[in-house]
Protein backbone atom coordinates (compact mmCIF):
# COMPACT_ATOMS: atom_id res chain seq x y z
CA UNK A 1 0.00 0.00 0.00
CA UNK A 2 1.43 3.38 -0.95
CA UNK A 3 0.76 6.60 0.87
CA UNK A 4 1.31 10.27 0.23
CA UNK A 5 4.40 10.00 2.43
CA UNK A 6 6.27 7.20 0.62
CA UNK A 7 8.70 9.76 -0.79
CA UNK A 8 9.83 10.44 2.78
CA UNK A 9 11.13 6.89 3.20
CA UNK A 10 13.39 7.32 0.18
CA UNK A 11 14.49 10.78 1.32
CA UNK A 12 15.29 9.52 4.82
CA UNK A 13 17.26 6.58 3.36
CA UNK A 14 19.38 8.96 1.28
CA UNK A 15 19.81 11.29 4.26
CA UNK A 16 20.86 8.41 6.51
CA UNK A 17 23.44 7.19 3.99
CA UNK A 18 24.85 10.70 3.63
CA UNK A 19 25.07 11.19 7.40
CA UNK A 20 26.87 7.87 7.90
CA UNK A 21 29.37 8.62 5.14
CA UNK A 22 30.00 12.17 6.40
CA UNK A 23 30.60 10.87 9.93
CA UNK A 24 33.11 8.29 8.67
CA UNK A 25 34.82 10.89 6.47
CA UNK A 26 35.08 13.29 9.40
CA UNK A 27 36.55 10.59 11.67
CA UNK A 28 39.15 9.40 9.16
CA UNK A 29 40.18 12.87 8.01
CA UNK A 30 40.63 13.98 11.62
CA UNK A 31 42.52 10.86 12.71
CA UNK A 32 44.83 10.58 9.69
CA UNK A 33 45.28 14.16 8.50
CA UNK A 34 44.12 16.41 11.39
CA UNK A 35 41.45 17.87 9.09
CA UNK A 36 37.78 18.45 9.66
CA UNK A 37 35.46 17.84 6.73
CA UNK A 38 35.00 21.62 6.32
CA UNK A 39 38.79 22.11 6.28
CA UNK A 40 39.05 19.40 3.62
CA UNK A 41 36.44 21.25 1.55
CA UNK A 42 38.43 24.48 1.88
CA UNK A 43 41.52 22.74 0.54
CA UNK A 44 39.52 21.15 -2.27
CA UNK A 45 37.80 24.36 -3.41
CA UNK A 46 41.08 26.27 -3.32
CA UNK A 47 42.81 23.55 -5.34
CA UNK A 48 40.15 23.93 -8.05
CA UNK A 49 40.27 27.75 -8.14
CA UNK A 50 42.37 29.76 -10.61
CA UNK A 51 45.81 30.34 -9.07
CA UNK A 52 44.62 28.24 -6.10
CA UNK A 53 43.22 31.31 -4.35
CA UNK A 54 39.77 32.61 -3.46
CA UNK A 55 38.31 35.55 -1.61
CA UNK A 56 37.02 34.64 1.82
CA UNK A 57 33.52 35.67 0.76
CA UNK A 58 33.64 33.16 -2.12
CA UNK A 59 34.80 30.39 0.21
CA UNK A 60 32.10 31.30 2.70
CA UNK A 61 29.41 30.71 0.06
CA UNK A 62 30.98 27.42 -1.04
CA UNK A 63 31.55 25.99 2.44
CA UNK A 64 28.34 27.23 4.02
CA UNK A 65 29.80 28.79 7.16
CA UNK A 66 29.21 32.19 8.68
CA UNK A 67 31.83 34.85 8.02
CA UNK A 68 33.24 34.59 11.54
CA UNK A 69 33.31 30.78 11.54
CA UNK A 70 35.10 30.73 8.19
CA UNK A 71 37.58 33.37 9.36
CA UNK A 72 38.43 31.25 12.40
CA UNK A 73 38.77 28.11 10.28
CA UNK A 74 41.00 29.80 7.69
CA UNK A 75 43.03 31.49 10.44
CA UNK A 76 43.68 28.10 12.01
CA UNK A 77 44.74 26.67 8.64
CA UNK A 78 47.04 29.65 8.02
CA UNK A 79 48.74 29.30 11.41
CA UNK A 80 52.39 28.34 11.38
CA UNK A 81 51.67 24.95 12.96
CA UNK A 82 49.37 24.05 10.03
CA UNK A 83 50.65 26.11 7.08
CA UNK A 84 48.09 24.83 4.56
CA UNK A 85 46.94 28.33 3.57
CA UNK A 86 48.38 31.82 3.18
CA UNK A 87 46.43 35.05 3.47
CA UNK A 88 46.86 37.87 0.95
CA UNK A 89 45.21 41.27 0.82
CA UNK A 90 43.18 42.03 -2.27
CA UNK A 91 44.99 44.68 -4.35
CA UNK A 92 41.84 45.97 -6.06
CA UNK A 93 39.72 46.11 -2.89
CA UNK A 94 41.52 46.78 0.38
CA UNK A 95 38.60 45.39 2.36
CA UNK A 96 38.94 42.01 0.65
CA UNK A 97 41.22 39.17 1.59
CA UNK A 98 42.31 36.18 -0.44
CA UNK A 99 43.44 32.89 0.93
CA UNK A 100 45.87 30.82 -1.12
CA UNK A 101 46.60 27.09 -1.01
CA UNK A 102 50.25 26.43 -0.12
CA UNK A 103 52.32 23.47 -1.34
CA UNK A 104 51.86 21.91 2.10
CA UNK A 105 48.08 22.35 1.78
CA UNK A 106 48.13 20.77 -1.68
CA UNK A 107 50.10 17.78 -0.36
CA UNK A 108 47.67 17.38 2.54
CA UNK A 109 44.74 17.49 0.13
CA UNK A 110 46.25 14.91 -2.25
CA UNK A 111 46.93 12.47 0.59
CA UNK A 112 43.48 12.92 2.11
CA UNK A 113 41.76 12.49 -1.28
CA UNK A 114 42.98 8.89 -1.33
CA UNK A 115 41.21 8.15 1.96
CA UNK A 116 38.16 10.18 0.91
CA UNK A 117 37.75 8.16 -2.29
CA UNK A 118 38.23 4.86 -0.44
CA UNK A 119 35.55 5.70 2.13
CA UNK A 120 33.10 6.68 -0.60
CA UNK A 121 33.86 3.48 -2.50
CA UNK A 122 33.42 1.38 0.63
CA UNK A 123 30.09 2.92 1.63
CA UNK A 124 28.51 3.58 -1.76
CA UNK A 125 29.51 0.51 -3.77
CA UNK A 126 26.94 -1.68 -2.03
CA UNK A 127 24.10 0.85 -2.39
CA UNK A 128 22.05 1.68 -5.46
CA UNK A 129 22.16 5.44 -4.90
CA UNK A 130 20.86 6.21 -8.38
CA UNK A 131 17.96 3.82 -7.83
CA UNK A 132 17.09 5.47 -4.52
CA UNK A 133 17.11 8.92 -6.10
CA UNK A 134 15.04 7.71 -9.05
CA UNK A 135 12.47 6.17 -6.69
CA UNK A 136 12.36 9.38 -4.64
CA UNK A 137 11.72 11.47 -7.75
CA UNK A 138 9.00 9.07 -8.90
CA UNK A 139 7.21 9.38 -5.54
CA UNK A 140 7.21 13.17 -5.68
TrEMBL record:
<feature type="domain" description="HTH marR-type">
    <location>
        <begin position="28"/>
        <end position="132"/>
    </location>
</feature>
<dbReference type="Pfam" id="PF12802">
    <property type="entry name" value="MarR_2"/>
</dbReference>
<dbReference type="InterPro" id="IPR039422">
    <property type="entry name" value="MarR/SlyA-like"/>
</dbReference>
<protein>
    <submittedName>
        <fullName>DNA-binding MarR family transcriptional regulator</fullName>
    </submittedName>
</protein>
<dbReference type="InterPro" id="IPR036388">
    <property type="entry name" value="WH-like_DNA-bd_sf"/>
</dbReference>
<dbReference type="InterPro" id="IPR036390">
    <property type="entry name" value="WH_DNA-bd_sf"/>
</dbReference>
<dbReference type="GO" id="GO:0003677">
    <property type="term" value="F:DNA binding"/>
</dbReference>
<keyword id="KW-0238">DNA-binding</keyword>
<dbReference type="InterPro" id="IPR000835">
    <property type="entry name" value="HTH_MarR-typ"/>
</dbReference>
